[in-house]
Design brief:
By secondary structure, this protein is an alpha/beta fold. The protein is about 55% helix and about 10% strand. A six-stranded mixed beta sheet has the order 2-3-1-4-5-6, with helices on both faces. Strand 2 and strand 3 form a beta hairpin. Helix 4 crosses helix 6. The structure holds guanosine-5'-triphosphate and magnesium ion.
């Protein structure tokens, strides 16, 4: 199937219009081409040639099998190998007859950048936690001195995906100067709009929500509303600093306290959906004896905004599955099911038959090779296989 899609992709915009015409009118063959040309207002040469006519027949089959969403996503993914992403995004915005939702979805496949926002006081282990998730020194870890004292961003490439980590300790320090917070919030604004995940990081062994934590919750909520918390996770670090006999209780109470603080500004509903997770960056296990990395990844992934989901999944694939030996991040059956559900939603918008459609992508006669889609579909199939 990839060969057919490549033929259509090579036609550029006219190929996409042809696809839309076929999907929305049900036309096929020469009438579909004529109709697409009428929309394009261009010369016959644009879609001329036997190639287009042949492609139209096959394209009809693909549309029937996979639906316009997946076919369109793959066409743009292929085009993004050669054409500038910005130009393609503009083109997508101007496409006729298709929903905004589909436009967003298609843009996600070609955007190979994801933003993580970290908030929390100095020294709580923000940098260490990012490093644990991505398994490398993305962000500098400091033992004594605050190592991050402005809005700092780190970039890190993993499997062709560019992670942008935005570190914001300045907002959470008691070194408040007049106007400082406002400065931070302005710097953060564009990042918040595009973030895939936000972590509110706090030490599990702290006994209360500190005044600067309260302040950051208030500022973020007032400035960005529920958007600030939509893809957030509460991350408790230093889990092993709490005795195992008190672990479950401490985690529960600390979570409730932070949610309560957030609820004041954005309501109970939103606050109570924010999951919490305890980690310890100096150990693979938490006081309950469980490995924490799989659960941490799952919670972050399930909460991640759909805008960066495909890129995030593609970047993590090698950590989740290894063809030889143990994967770095091990998921249990429940975690796999959750990750799978989220991928379905991101790829095909939660259609009931999602699994089947994704499965078909790599099924007999229809391999998608390469690209983010191919990687994510591969991941999906791996998750499925181990579930079987
Ligand atoms: N025991 C333990 N130590 C941790 C944990 N997370 C971080 N650390 C240590 O705490 C210190 C600070 O960690 P960082 O990751 O630099 O903290 P940060 O929040 O990024 O700090 P700033 O960038 O300065 O704001 C380092 O010495 C880490 O090794 C943890 O979960 N458990
Ligand atoms: Mg740091």
């Amino acid at each position: 199937m990839d060969k057919v899609i490549r033929t259509v992709a090579a036609l550029g915009l006219p190929g996409v219009i042809l696809l839309i015409v076929m999907a929305t009118t049900g036309l096929t063959g020469a009438p579909a081409i004529t109709s697409a040309l009428a929309i394009l207002g261009g010369p016959v040469g644009m879609l001329g040639g036997i190639g287009a006519l042949l492609a139209v027949g096959k394209l009809g089959e693909l549309l029937a099998q996979f639906g316009i969403d997946l076919v369109m996503m793959r066409i743009y993914e292929i085009r993004s190998e050669k054409e500038p992403v910005e130009k393609l995004c503009q083109e997508i915005d101007n496409l006729p007859f298709i929903s905004n939702e589909l436009k967003q979805k298609v843009k996600r496949v070609i955007d190979k950048q994801i933003i993580f926002v970290l908030t929390g006081r100095t020294g709580v282990g923000k940098s260490s936690t990012v490093n644990s998730l991505l398994d490398c020194e993305v962000a500098k870890v400091g033992k004594y001195e605050p190592t991050t004292n402005s809005l700092e961003t780190y970039e890190h490439e993993l499997n062709g995906i560019n992670f942008i980590i935005v570190d914001t300790p300045g907002l959470c320090d008691d070194l408040e100067e007049a106007g400082n917070d406002k400065k931070y919030l302005n710097l953060m604004k564009p990042k918040i709009q595009k973030m895939v995940s936000m972590w509110f990081v706090s030490k599990l062994d702290d006994t209360r929500v500190t005044s600067d934590e309260k302040r950051v919750i208030k500022r973020l909520s007032k400035e960005f509303g529920k958007k600030a918390w939509e893809c957030s996770v509460i991350v408790f670090t230093f889990a092993n600093s709490v005795p195992s006999s008190e672990y479950e209780e401490t985690l529960k109470i600390r979570t409730e306290l932070i949610r309560k603080e957030i609820a004041q500004y954005v309501g109970e509903d939103i606050a109570h959906q924010i999951p919490s997770i305890a980690v310890d960056n100096r150990s693979k296990i938490t006081p309950d004896g469980k490995k924490w990395l799989g659960e941490f990844f799952t919670k972050v992934f399930v909460r991640a905004s759909e805008s960066g989901l495909i890129a995030f999944a593609a970047a993590m694939k090698d950590s989740l599955f290894s063809s030889s030996g143990e994967a770095r991040i091990q998921l249990d059956e429940n975690q796999k099911a959750e990750v799978k559900k989220k991928i379905n939603k991101g790829l095909i918008g939660g259609m009931a038959s999602g699994g089947t459609v994704v499965g078909l992508f790599l099924g007999p006669g229809g391999a998608i090779v390469g690209g983010l889609l191919g990687t994510v579909v591969g991941l999906w199939l791996e998750l499925d296989r181990r579930n079987a």
